[in-house]
Please model this.
Amino acid sequence: MHDLWLTLIDAMSAWHQGKLFFEHAFAIDHDALHVVVGVLAWLTIALVLRRPVTSWLPFVWCLALILWNETVDLWVEQWPEPGMQYGECAKDVILTILLPAILMISARLRPDLYRGMARQRRRR
Model:
């Protein structure tokens, strides 16, 4: 059991280091990276599951992935002030899931917003 625990810690550390590498290699702001990755993860999950982006399933899987990622951050990073660390974690979750949530909800409530150009072209 101890070996499994050490393997889990090593995997979480490697994941965190990979994220840091990506962030610094492409000189993308940390917050902007969360917004971009959230949308890309949501769309990729929808493609893999073969579900429309209006389905709750890709959104829920994306949220689970985001929460797992932030759990790794909380585990690996140890800030001197827990309030600051938890606040940063909450901000990261919100930034990462906000745009997928807005797009999914708007597509569910007003699908005509996403089909408008196709209908106008057919009428001509």
Remarks:
- DSSP finds five helices and no strands in the chain.
- The helical segments are 2-25, 30-49, 56-76, 82-109, 112-123.
- The first helix runs from residue 2 to 25.
